[in-house]
Write a structure and sequence with these properties.
Layout: H1 2-72, E1 76-81, E2 86-89, H2 91-97, H3 101-104, H4 118-131, E3 134-142, E4 148-159, E5 165-174, H5 176-232, H6 241-272, E6 280-283, H7 284-301, E7 305-310, E8 315-318, H8 320-337, E9 344-352, E10 355-362, H9 396-406, E11 410-414, E12 423-428
Parallel strand pairs: 7-9
Antiparallel strand pairs: 1-2, 1-5, 3-4, 4-5, 6-8, 9-10, 10-12, 11-12
Helix pairs in contact: 5-6, 6-9, 7-8, 8-9
């Protein structure tokens, strides 16, 4: 009985021992885990401190960078609150106004505004407080020595955590040099405007004089031309061959002078908007054929051939006398620049997209491309040398342009270059 009791006690004791060992093992494991966690926590804490230290360094670096930008900017910076009190400013602001920073900080923005511009400054300040922004507002500033200068003011707003406006970083750009340049430009513009007015007055005087003188010139030329034509008919008495030859020269010169005066008058009327047209529906083929017939004698005399390709029944609302005047000018030009004996002129008309198209083409010297548009400018000459081969005043095509545009049409020139002839195109509605 006693042996069995001892055996049982020993087994229980073994069980207890094993349980204690397990508990000790678990406790040791827990202590080890706790120690490891403590080590990890300490390590994490150290890493976090290092990251925070680096972050603080970066933030301080950024603060310094922005502070340097603020301080060293060539523009004038100031920081104000919503009462207009200056809380800070940069070196450029202090130097430009001639104050030290201590003299500036605590003052109001109105202390630095020029007297003549004080109300504008107040208005701009109130506008800023209402709408929360100012962009490139021109304000005049007063320096410590009393001098003033213009600046462009822009406000970059400052807000608290509740997005309430608490102040601004104001950027001011000194535009003194720009203002001086602008003032010079304004003075130059005023001078130019005055000169333009004077030139306009002179131009009006010139226009009046030209209109008067051309009219006075035309008045005696008409009877001179008529009497020469009458004398050549020998109704006033017989003429010798020499007399006829001389009178023919006088007649030709009179006609040239009369045409010049007429062109001058027409050009003047076109410029002044005083040209009157008598428009009605007319068949262009009749006007063209009539004009070519009138010019045929001169064309034949020059041994120049002329070809017609005229569409019949091409009606147009126009002044037939003015269209004939245009065609005569174009044919005279074509003859002038075509070679005697081998010259060829084509006159063509046809309908095109509801418009009447007229073409006068020659095989003469042609026109270089950069002068195609200039030939319609009054008094323009392609050849301005003193020995130029072809005469003319440079009025004919200018008058043609004015007459065609007065009809609501268009006229232009085309050419492939020198010695390849030229084409004059007319488009009439």
């Amino acid at each position: 009985m006693k042996e069995n009791d001892r055996k049982i006690f020993s087994i229980d004791d073994l069980h207890k021992t094993m349980e204690l060992e397990q508990e000790n093992f678990i406790l040791a494991s827990l202590y080890e885990i706790i120690d490891n966690k403590n080590e990890d926590l300490e390590k994490s804490r150290g890493e976090l401190k290092e990251q925070l230290r680096k972050l603080v360094k970066v933030v301080k670096g950024k603060q310094k960078m922005y502070r340097d930008l603020y301080e060293q900017s060539p523009d004038l910076y100031r920081t104000i609150n919503t009462d207009g009190i200056i809380l800070d400013c940069n070196n450029a602001y202090a130097e430009r106004l001639g104050y030290s920073k201590d003299e500036i900080i605590g003052k109001t923005i109105f202390d630095h505004s020029s007297e003549k511009n004080l109300q504008d400054t107040k208005n701009s300040f109130e506008t800023w407080k209402k709408v929360g922004k100012i962009r490139n507002k021109e304000i005049w500033f007063r320096c410590k020595d009393g001098t003033v200068f213009p600046g462009l003011v822009s406000a970059n707003n400052l807000y608290d955590d509740d997005q309430k406006l608490i102040g601004s970083n104001t950027v001011i750009t000194d535009i003194t040099e720009i203002y001086k340049h602008r003032k010079k430009l304004e003075e130059s513009r005023n001078q130019i405007q005055q000169q333009v007015l004077e030139l306009q007055e002179l131009d009006m005087a010139k226009d009046g004089f030209l209109a008067m003188i051309t009219h006075e010139l035309k008045t005696p030329l008409v009877p001179i031309k008529s009497y020469i034509e009458l004398a050549l008919t020998e109704k006033l008495g017989p003429l010798t061959d020499v007399q006829k030859e001389r009178l023919t020269i006088v007649q030709s010169s009179t006609e040239y002078l009369l045409k010049l005066v007429t062109d001058l008058l027409d050009a003047q009327k076109i410029e002044l908007g005083q040209l009157k047209l008598t428009k009605d529906m007319h068949d262009l083929s009749e006007i063209i054929n009539k004009t070519v017939e009138k010019m045929s004698g001169e064309i034949t005399k020059r041994s120049i051939s002329i070809e017609k390709n005229i569409q019949n029944g091409l009606f147009c609302l126009c002044d037939p006398i003015r269209i004939e005047q245009v065609l005569i000018n174009l044919l005279v030009n074509a003859m002038k620049f075509s070679p005697d004996g081998s010259g060829k002129i084509l006159v063509k008309s046809y309908s095109e997209n509801g418009h009447a198209r007229i073409l006068v083409k020659d095989n003469g010297i042609g026109i270089i491309s950069n002068k195609l548009e200039k030939i319609f400018v009054k008094f323009y000459q392609i050849d301005t040398s003193t020995t130029r081969e072809y005469g003319g005043t440079g009025l004919g095509l200018s008058v043609c342009k004015g007459l065609i545009e007065s009809h609501g049409g268009k006229i232009w020139a085309e050419s492939d270059g020198t010695n390849k002839g030229a084409e004059i195109h007319i488009l009439l509605p």
